[in-house]
Amino acid sequence: QVQLAESGGGLVQAGGSLSLSCVVSGNMFRIVSVGWYRRAPGKERELVAQTTAGHNTDYADSVKGRCTLSRDNAFKTVHLQMNDMKAEDTATYFCNVRAYLSPTNWDEFWGQGTQVTVSS
What we know:
The strands form two sheets. Strands 2, 4, 5, 6, 9, 10 and 11 form a seven-stranded mixed β-sheet that branches. The chain has a four-stranded antiparallel β-sheet with strand order 1-3-8-7, with no helix packed on it. The chain contains no helices and eleven strands. It has strands at 3-7, 10-13, 18-25, 30-39, 46-52, 57-59, 67-71, 77-82, 91-100, 106-110, 114-119.
């Protein structure tokens, strides 16, 4: 069973920095992508940053230049470093993994979410 364990959320002042980590465990045939999404109160869940097995990394326009997504080679640990944080970054952040569990069986997995609150 694939499990994602998130850590690093909390309260940060505007302009400050925060780092989120996600540890991925379980058996997977091939990981397609890992990344972070967030859902702010009253809003839909949105992509923050995502990286693929091909080393392509995408960032939401709202965080470009302020966030860095990194991972180990095995995709077992994913980090999201966020700088110059803004009130609009306040949200619940979710780690996401898309992976093949077999050569033909694809699935998507989510962490339980970690709250990030930016105080102004």
